[in-house]
Amino acid sequence: MSEKLPGRQIEISWPDLGITVAADLDDRNPALADALWESLPYQSLQGHALIAGEHLYHVAPIPALLHTPHATRIPDRREAPDGTVFCSGLQHLGIKYGTLTEPMPATPVGRIREADMPALLEAGAAIWDAVYSTKKQILAEVRRAGEPGGHRIPVLHATNTDARRLIADIAAETEKTWLVPPAELEDLHQGVIPSRAGNFGTVLPTLLFVNGETRPLGYAAYGGLVRAAVQDMPMPSLVHMTRLLVGVPAEFLGYCGLEQLWAFTQRFLDVLDALDRDDFYAVTSQMALYINCLGGWNLQLYPWETGDHLRQQGAAECA
Fold this sequence. Notes:
Blueprint: E1 4-14, E2 19-26, H1 30-39, E3 42-45, E4 47-48, E5 53-59, E6 84-87, E7 92-100, E8 108-112, H2 117-134, E9 139-144, H3 161-178, H4 183-189, H5 204-230, H6 235-245, H7 247-256, H8 259-271, H9 277-301, H10 315-318
Antiparallel strand pairs: 1-2, 1-9, 2-8, 3-9, 4-5, 5-7, 6-7, 6-8
Helix pairs in contact: 3-8, 3-9, 5-6, 5-7, 5-9, 7-8
């Protein structure tokens, strides 16, 4: 049975909705709870699961989430009590607020207080409507209970001069786009595509491909490289895997309109051979946060209602 961590209560607020809920952090994953606690306060674009069920998540500006080991893992998050708060290796803070369909292992760090569950359900319904239909951009603020909110993007340190400059530029771009949609993505979703990517003037296929490439680039490629660096993969192997994993998808995304991402990637590949392990970790962590930010905006901006006429067989009977 989990024990509350003394004094470790957080508040998760959605000012646009006028809703705040409180959660008690517990001892199931103390290292993850520490990483979350030490990062507070922060703000982020609030997202909602699109295929997994009644689950809220947002990208948390916490590089350590990519590699911090868990002590307790729920084999199937569908079985977790409603209100469970998770920290994920995908750099997410998530909250289960109802029925889930995806049998995914998860690492809990706390639970929403029972008195706040009706407010959480209200927030979940409003956020689903915003992500799927209205496209209203709802921000989440996570803070220590009773303390003021705020926002900052962490900037990691590197000793290599070129790496340090690259990190500063990535962090500045991430700061600029963390709470405001990136201009490149807004243009793309409005059909402004300088390369003309999209056969015969179409836009939706390009949006689909951009979303499909951005998520694994941040979650799997850069997240995996960060974990491999922390787990002492030899540097020659890290360099080799980086060249195998990140160049092709970033170049494709640049063609589709994410030119800033491709420019950062080229600078990273140019300096890659000169990096030691600490600098490699710093650059890949900063890139992961930036790309995961782009991924969050992709999910918010994508016109999901375009497919509203398509419904699963039996969906009406289950509703």
